[in-house]
């Protein structure tokens, strides 16, 4: 009896054991184009990397953030002091009616580099299989630890998103790059880099058919659809949906990285869809901006964007569980936004506005337009983040309600 009890205790202790892993970091420096440099030590891949330096105020879900395609080309600074304490899980999942092949938001680390105040050398979680350092190394992504991320964040808030370089090893001792040497990822069509190259299907036996324009979709968006019984066809970002639209019950436009100006082709295709097609259309993040551009609104580059799981938005209209005048806490990751203007295009109205910077957080078609179109800048499906707006799509009536609300 005693032996059986001891065995159970030992088994329990193994389940909650803290894994230990030490690494010898090389010298590393973060250079900003505006002239500031921050010295620390490296973890992950021992390589130098250029990118756009941004910060995230998320206090958890670093694995989801780092695998989000919207962070493509960016040097991600976490404001949370310690990152990596619960390790990294196995990122493989089945393709079935419950999952889409991955546990996180994509197959690999998407950001160009990671900056943390204190990287955890010891991690503990029952799903963890490796440390953040070994994970970054496998995916060829460098990181810096031991720097003052508060100072970096203050700079970025004051001067805006800034181009940077992570210099590792021998490069860390070299002078900062000349201004002309910094690479600006916004000059490239990052959406085209992360979007699927060919159409593919998920959960083909689902009882409702949804087409998804992939601008760099988080896996949880697709996962949320298939778990609610949808047969999902994922299309490249510039696919002409109008040629096949009659095969589908609704259209979904996903998140994605970079500037929406590179996606004007998609906006023009969507304008035709909205004019000629009366079935539900839903977009979030980049998809929201594409809907706005199709409606005639202008997208602009924000000073430092909104990245984190704590962005407050004010509802300007009611829709299902969303009540006008109420503030909701949301998860966001974007550098661009739609410009708020006094007179909206005919048939459109603002849905949400950001409580911090008054940027447009949502638009929708008016009841008089006869259309069912919604776009939101935030991620209502939450992963990771709050659940306040999980039923944001409830204005879309009928059977699609259960799918497009992501509830």
From TrEMBL:
Keyword Lipid metabolism: no
Gene3D superfamilies: 3.40.50.880, Carbamoyl-phosphate synthase small subunit, N-terminal domain
One GO molecular-function entry: ATP binding
Annotated Carbamoyl-phosphate synthase small subunit N-terminal domain residues: 26-167
Catalytic activity, EC: 6.3.5.5
GO BP term, example: 'de novo' pyrimidine nucleobase biosynthetic process
InterPro entries: Anth_synth/Amidotransfase (IPR050472), CarbamoylP_synth_ssu (IPR006274), CarbamoylP_synth_ssu_N (IPR002474), CarbP_synth_ssu_N_sf (IPR036480), Class_I_gatase-like (IPR029062), CPSase_GATase1 (IPR035686), GATASE (IPR017926)
Catalytic activity from the UniProt record: hydrogencarbonate + L-glutamine + 2 ATP + H2O = carbamoyl phosphate + L-glutamate + 2 ADP + phosphate + 2 H(+); L-glutamine + H2O = L-glutamate + NH4(+)
Keywords per UniProt: ATP-binding, Glutamine amidotransferase, Ligase, Nucleotide-binding
Pathway recorded for this protein: Amino-acid biosynthesis; L-arginine biosynthesis; carbamoyl phosphate from bicarbonate: step 1/1
Enzyme class name: ligase
UniProt cross-references to NCBIfam families, sorted A to Z: CPSaseIIsmall, PRK12838.1
UniProt similarity note: Belongs to the CarA family.
Assembly: Heterodimer composed of 2 chains; the small (or glutamine) chain promotes the hydrolysis of glutamine to ammonia, which is used by the large (or ammonia) chain to synthesize carbamoyl phosphate.
Protein name per Swiss-Prot or TrEMBL: Carbamoyl phosphate synthase arginine-specific small chain
